[in-house]
Amino acid sequence: MRFDVRVCATSAVLLAVAACGSTSQPTDSGADTGGADSSVDSSVDSSADAMGSDVTIVDAPTGSDSGPDASAGPCPSALPMTGSPCPRAGLVCQYGTDPRENCRPSARCEMGVWVSMAPACMQITPPAMCPATREMAQGQACAPMDAVCAYSGLFCRCTNCRSFPVSGCNGPVQWQCNAPNPDMACPSVQPNLGTACAMEGQRCGYDCESYGPNGGRQCTGGVWVASPNNCPISTRRAKRDIVYSSEAEREQMARDVLRMRLATYEYTDVALAGRRRLGFVYEDETTHRYARDPDISGVDLYGYTSLLLATVQTQQRQIEQLQREVRELRVRRAR
User: Fold this and answer.
1) Is residue 54 packed enough to be buried (19+ CB in 10 Å), middle (13-18) or exposed (0-12)?
2) With contact defined as beta carbons under 8 Å apart, do 192 and 224 qualify?
3) CA distance 105 to 96
4) pTM tops 0.85, yes or no
5) What's the alpha-carbon Rg for the chain, to the nearest Å?
6) d(CA 111, CA 261)
7) How far apart are CA 106 and CA 121, in angstroms?
8) Are 104 and 94 in contact (CB under 8 A)?
């Protein structure tokens, strides 16, 4: 009987990780979700790729593209001219209000001078041709493919492709919208690099699907700099102080996992609402530090999956011990 119970527990754990994968991006119900943002710069090349793979080195400032907070911090108020002096080696300054990070003009301080770049991106769809709100757009059929509509610093893309955590294109073509950061200590939308920040060391994550593994922000030296975006990074080159878990530690992890309280729920942000999801509530699981990401008040899917692996390993060891005991009993009975 013990054997059957442990096998069932393992199955339940594996089902839980599949459900959790779709619950890692809660949103703030108080976020601004007004109509399509007509302030986004639309002067870029409409024939270029939507994510800005074509880049032009610019030799003159483009003051008309500076964002509302571009003058904050050590960055110039407008995109500087390539070759002009810069104040801090490695400093990166972004400009503009395009919600797509790869489509914002930027300048990097290298060897004492600015190197400025202006990505060429597909033009933002005019507001009159977009759904009125991000909530109305999310999940709805759309055309043409790769069209982008802007909504107060966020955006929706017309696509059937996903890039995170597994890339692929399938299913219906529909609007896929990103959501604001729900942490009150973070800007709700991704800030430009180089703009001023107040809380030194503060990390803010921004939708891996839209911004990629380096689309996060960290407040360093009084300005926002790029940081890892809570996307799993596994290479040893990116890690330090590696300590492998002991058998006793894995057993404790397994006990913690089996005590997790699962719940079904809907997100408060209308763009992600409309269907119930399965997972756990961040505030409920105060003891499971490896499954929680305090920077985003959400699930650390990599840590959560690793906890489940520890549970499977522990239960497998227990199963093998039971199998040995059964074999020994059979031998004794056969004598």
Assistant:
1) middle
2) yes
3) 7
4) no
5) 24
6) 54
7) 14
8) yes
Rounded-to-integer distance, Cα 67 and Cα 105, Å = 10
Residue with tokens 């797509």: 100
Q: How far apart are CA 15 and CA 21, in angstroms?
A: 11
Query: CB atoms < 10 A from the CB of 184, how many?
Result: 9
At residue 158, the 3 state secondary structure works out as strand
**Which residues lie across from 57 on neighbouring strands?**
117
Q: What is the pLDDT of residues 137-196, one digit of tens each?
A: 998 999 999 999 999 999 999 998 877 665 678 778 999 998 888 788 899 999 999 999
What tokens appear for 70 in the block?
Answer: 């571009």
Helix (H, G, I), strand (E, B) or coil at 324: helix
b/e 228-248 (16+ beta carbons within 10 angstroms → b): bbbbeeeeeeeeeeeeeeeee
295 Cβ contact partners less than 8 Å away, ≥ 6 residues apart: 183, 203, 204, 205, 230
Cβ neighbours of 322 (radius 10 Å): 13
Beta strands across the sheet bearing 216-220: 203-204, 216-220, 223-227
Helix (H), strand (E), coil (C) string for 259-317: CCCCEEECCCCHHHCCCCEEECCHHHCCCCHHHEECCCCEECHHHHHHHHHHHHHHHHH
**Which of 189, 227, 196 shows the shortest CA–CA distance to 28?**
189
Q: What is the pLDDT of residues 290-310, one digit of tens each?
A: 777 665 566 777 788 888 889
| 135: nearest Cα among 209, 210, 33 | 33
Q: Residue 225: helix, strand or coil by DSSP?
A: strand
DSSP state of 85: B
